[in-house]
């Protein structure tokens, strides 16, 4: 499955439901702006946790530039390293509290996480960043 995301960009889903979610989201957005160029970030918005068992999330979506020679695995490793630096550990899945979650959903136009691509917590921000991109071109 493909999208109209430019070949020079990828789309990242951003989420946090930790008690300090406002701080975590702000820090994650600052890190993305320092790490990638260009960067288009949606508004930050709140959504219920997908299973309904855990605290609400703050979400956002980022459309970021990726140099042609950079592999998806390299970008993903960088995102996962940032998550670990923020305190993310495997046991977060059991506790339901996620300090920060950064996932590549679209890579150079290809949807690599189709289930997430269709979920409301992603589509709200995705539609916004794609609208901003189309206004700029």
Could you explain how this protein is built, in words?
The model has no long low-confidence stretch (mean pLDDT 94). Strand 5 (101-107) and strand 6 (110-111) form a beta hairpin. It contains 5 helices and 6 strands. The longest helix has 17 residues, at 120-136. Strands 1, 2, 3, 4, 5 and 6 form a 6-stranded antiparallel β-sheet that branches. The radius of gyration is 14 Å and the shape is globular. The two termini are 23 Å apart. The chain has one domain (9-136): 2-Layer Sandwich (Alpha-Beta Plaits). By secondary structure, the chain is α+β, with helices and mostly antiparallel strands. 39% of the residues lie in helices and 23% in strands.
Short description:
This protein has 137 residues and is an alpha+beta fold.
Q: How is the biggest beta sheet arranged?
A: 6 strands, antiparallel
What is the third-level CATH name, the topology? Alpha-Beta Plaits
Mean pLDDT across the residues is: 94
Give the overall shape, derived from the CA principal axes.
Answer: globular
Number of domains as seen in the coordinates: 1
Uncertain residue segments: none
CATH superfamily: 7,8-Dihydro-6-hydroxymethylpterin-pyrophosphokinase HPPK
Write the H/E string, N to C: EHEEEHHEEHH
CATH class: Alpha Beta
Tally of strands: 6
Helix content: 25-40%
SSE map:
Layout: E1 9-16, H1 21-35, E2 39-41, E3 45-47, E4 57-65, H2 72-85, H3 92-95, E5 101-107, E6 110-111, H4 114-117, H5 120-136
Q: What key phrases describe this protein's structure?
A:
137 residues; alpha+beta; Alpha-Beta Plaits; 5 helices; 6 strands
């Amino acid at each position: 499955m493909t999208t109209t995301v430019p070949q020079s960009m990828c789309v990242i889903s951003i989420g946090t439901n930790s008690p300090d979610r406002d701080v975590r989201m702000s820090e994650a957005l600052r890190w993305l702006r320092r790490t990638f160029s260009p960067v288009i970030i949606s508004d930050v918005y709140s959504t219920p946790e997908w299973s309904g068992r855990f605290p609400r999330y703050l979400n956002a979506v980022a459309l970021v530039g990726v140099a042609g020679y950079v592999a998806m695995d390299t970008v993903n490793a960088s995102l996962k390293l940032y998550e670990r630096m923020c305190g993310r550990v495997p046991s977060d899945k059991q506790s339901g509290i996620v300090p920060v979650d950064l996932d590549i959903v679209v890579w150079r136009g290809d949807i690599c996480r189709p289930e997430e691509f269709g979920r409301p917590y992603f589509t709200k921000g995705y539609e916004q960043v794609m609208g901003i991109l189309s206004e700029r071109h």
